[in-house]
Specification:
The structure is a homotetramer. The first copy, chain A, has eleven helices and 13 strands. Chain A is of the alpha/beta class. A seven-stranded mixed beta sheet of chain A has the order 8-9-7-10-13-12-11. Chain A has a six-stranded parallel beta sheet with strand order 2-1-3-4-6-5, sandwiched between helices. Chain A has helices at residues 11-20, 41-44, 61-67, 80-89, 106-113, 130-138, 148-162, 192-195, 210-222, 255-266, 315-330, and strands spanning 2-6, 27-32, 70-73, 94-96, 126-128, 142-145, 171-177, 200-201, 228-234, 241-247, 272-274, 292-299, 304-311. Chains A and D meet through helix 8 of A and helix 8 of D.
């Protein structure tokens, strides 16, 4: 099956190439990049030398649509919507890695991201978190692949909200992310010398754009409005998200019961590992892989349930999850091309 | 003034040497280390070559007491109490960096740390956080230098608790610490290859020994029992603590008002910097220095006050704070020997 | 084909598990570890959770020999020889990752490593660098997998020595290695806090044990004694070796001609990438993969040819190369299970 | 003594502020930055909050000259020469951190750096390496502060060249530098995600601009033309240079004799530490300090003398060395304001 990677030279796009180039069913036929158009992929990015024999090209959705059977769009928020619309109009199924089709309510989307470029396609989009929406994803032609932070928050949280075990209105989420989450931004803040050994909170005060997405899905799981205080932090490493959630239990605090609910929810899941009792997830255990590790702890003294998760933001938080969605959409085994073992040490 | 560093070859001890070797009033006459006894300081630790012309010696409190006018004890919890008692009995004033004299209630101490070796000296000890206990420290001969995590929590928290602006019973604290906080432990978990690019929570569930210390001082500030959910995390760097506190406001949420209270509290403080509105503290801005940077934010949607702080765990979280206490105890200017500028980049 | 990983809990052993667990032909039936015997692989090493359903067991070569068709031995130098001898006596083909069968001359081996435990098997061993010994490896039952530093030195060097373009007696080699090269050694020198941001030479003065191995193979390529000044350095990262070789040309200095010789030698090689003119290899372009990137430069002013290479010491420098050898020994496609794309960024 | 820092917002300029703000004799009266003009120093760079109460201003050499007694110029190569000329014409002594006045021969300078903006001031400039040119620096009003790489090469090399113990025409220099050496360049190559865990050679083939400077001073020491093959490498850390030099001995190889010559040369030097026999310099032992650690080793088998050095490129390789020069020029104790102890761990 011939696929296109639209926006292939960003970190997420390169990760799609890394994963897709080894996928047994998908073959990359088109890789677009405005900045790199005309350059060979392996010349522009030496890690990909000898891996993919293709030149980047400028994005022309109509021409692309004629040459592929499926498209991954890894464009910035806002820029993605019209590109997706073009591809969809031409009949090409799309896994979109931007936020443009994740939020069902246009008003909520526009409050965070500005004017929406293709609201007419919102209804047909399915939120791209396979562990929650497997059946719908198998039946759609447009997956709105879940964001990196929301994936790290929703995988540990949703089963417990569905079970009515947590108050959805009092959730504190403290997330720590590797720097690649910001993309290849040419700002002084992202230079090596500025970030080595640094750690800091950013976008503090509920202003991060991923909050509406988290609350939409957490609320759906709880059957009631969710309210999430979310503070993201930057870690001095490239890949990975570690999330700690502080929640108030409903009907008694029990880490063991929370763990059972998680184990039940994820018993058949290939990519969610519920850790043994007392073991906290580590970033180093998921790097380079499509795994999300989750765990539940209780602070008996304070009556707080603590949920922890780690994932690789470029894999389970982006490109890996997109391929997982695409596998479902195309009727392939869901884990096809995604079995890479975490790199440790 | 001749001083001893007892337990001088651990990370905290070496940091005391780093600071004291440039202090205009203190002169290191004794540096003890059981493992390194007989070795020259500069031979054992090449960074100190040419800095301090002294050999490590085994600790013999009575002999040490005769040769110094002041002692810094940087021994493990439990081992410190008897050493401090010997020095105090011999009339030597002590700044103790262990937890042994921080917790006023022996029962509370023993629940976390085991049997106390010198409870008779507890009453004369003053909690070693100069911004809170300046006058008492100036009048004592035994400072129980505050712990690294507690310092990062109490400096942003105490002024607001004193002002009655926060509910002391519902505090969530998510701290991230550099690896040096664990000391020079020979465990596989602390090897470079295990920690590069890693991040993980540890001692989750209210079991970290610093919790009683935090609650003691937070409670004293609030005039009511404090209840803190505390989850420490390990960062892939050597130095520094970044703390994020999630609190419920009393009498209305206002970041501006919180910031004013912090500014008032720390207007005259040399080592606490209240950051401009909207600016979050960074680890990289305090490394190598005795500063603690603090900031207050509000999440209006969720009604949560968010307090942030960063400090260097080996300086303001340990050796620097000990010297600050010692300066007060000896009647020297409080910032003597502590004006080192943060190393950035 | 059932395989054993002997010494499976060290960094090299874990990397063998990482690679072999996805190999289409090999199936890990036995993983030995004295320290971890009885523990489940995924419990002991969380990154491998859900990957390999097996318990570590103590090594008992005779029992192991009955249960597998092939063995990878990743034991320390000296300890490997007798284990290999037992397996070979029982008819099991072996890819040995230690140095025990790399050096043909027993005296030379013993000068560096001490008494040899199974010299009778030396004659049947083939040096495990497939790019140099492909045919012999396909015909042997004992591969002495090349060392990490020697691989990084020999791949750029051997084609030029074979072509008579370099003086074999005047080679300066400056190598920089990630910390995982030292294994999981519980020494203070390898703690995170000691190595973050550090860089230093070690074993300076021609005393590194890999020198005889390099000179043996460089000399064989040149048809004359090779003499290598080798200084290894430690980098503040976990994986990777970057090697810079300073050589005197024979018959005129020309980077272009050197590059042509490398291109000719490696035109058909899957795992050696000769970089475009003027491009220096990067560690970040090979991490997690079996690639070795090489390049040639000339310093016209000084008449020096400069050869550069990078590889992942745990893959092409150890486990990947072992699997590459094993593929040849077993008649599988040489790149089977080794097509993992480098992880970048 | 009032001083100006011209070009104060680059990494070298900020390091000058870090050091000068604690200097007992110098007081920063002017800090210029075109990009940051009008901003308060502490607002623009939070690590300097509360340290220096000054606003950046645009550079106007004539106005600056009236307000200071001494100037440090930390401008890019080429831009520095005219600024220095203006200051000198106005009678202000200058320590210049660019390359503009380091190379005595204008033709040699222009081959590397382009047209020289103020060649008339070359004759009055003294090469700013106090260990070599102490007396001349004390008598000049223009110090051309030595480059970071050259300092790391010349300090171990010059005493041996002066003693006639090395062939000056066959020197191989392999240097590894932290990323801050490139300055705060907004290029994708210097982003954190591109450099974490990376290592690579750059400007291979004798094209690095520091080569003429090294050869000028090495040749002067040897009394004969020096020829240096120099390959710089980028390390995955912010600060520090580690240099390894491979040299041919004259009159017999002896590490002990080489060490004696170094010890003799540096016995009275405050900032050069000749390490004990067999101990290699570490980056982590010099960070944040003005030290350069040096050591000599012999490879008896190959007849090669190996010289090793480490220093902090922003201190002894730039700002610290500039202050050391300025102390000499102003008649202050040479180590004034430079006694900061290395930060380790």
């Amino acid at each position: 099956m011939r696929v296109a990677v639209i926006g292939a030279s960003g970190y997420t796009g390169l990760e799609l190439i890394r994963i897709l180039s080894r996928h047994p069913q998908f073959e990359i036929s088109v890789a677009t990049s405005e900045q790199r158009a005309g350059q060979a992929v392996g010349a522009a990015f030496p890690s990909l030398g000898g891996i993919l024999d293709l030149d980047f090209e400028a994005n022309d959705p109509e021409r692309v649509a004629q040459r592929v059977d499926f498209a991954f769009t890894a464009l910035p928020h806002g820029a993605s919507a019209p590109a997706v619309a073009s591809l969809r109009k031409a009949g090409v199924p799309v896994a979109d890695l931007s936020a443009d089709f994740r939020i069902r309510d246009v008003g909520t989307y526009e409050a965070s991201y500005g004017s929406h470029g293709a609201p007419e396609w919102l209804d047909s989009a399915v939120y791209g978190l396979p562990e929650l929406y497997r059946e719908s994803l198998a039946a759609t032609d447009l997956a709105a692949v879940a964001g990196c932070y929301p994936t790290s928050v929703l995988l540990p949280l949703v089963p417990l909200l569905r079970a009515g075990m947590l108050e959805p209105g009092h959730l504190m989420v403290d997330s720590k992310s590797g720097v690649s989450g910001a993309g290849r931004k040419l700002e002084a803040d992202y230079l090596f010398a500025e970030l080595e050994g640094d750690c800091r909170a950013y976008q503090v005060g509920g202003v991060h754009r991923h909050v509406p997405e988290m609350e939409q899905e957490a609320g759906a799981a709880a059957g009631a409005a969710a309210c999430i205080t979310f503070v993201p932090h930057l870690l001095p490493t490239t890949r990975g998200i570690a999330t700690s959630i502080y929640a108030r239990p409903v009907g008694g605090l029990s880490a063991a019961r929370a763990r059972e609910v998680l184990l039940d929810a994820y018993a058949q899941e290939r990519f969610v590992r519920v850790l043994p009792e007392g073991q906290a997830p580590r970033l180093s255990s998921v790097k380079g892989s499509n795994y999300c590790d989750v765990a539940a702890f209780a602070d008996e003294r304070t009556g707080t349930l603590i949920l922890l998760s780690t994932l690789d933001n470029l894999v389970k938080g982006a490109a890996g999850q997109a391929v997982q969605c695409a596998n479902l959409m195309c009727g392939f085994p869901e884990d096809q091309g995604l079995l890479e073992v975490p790199i440790a040490p």
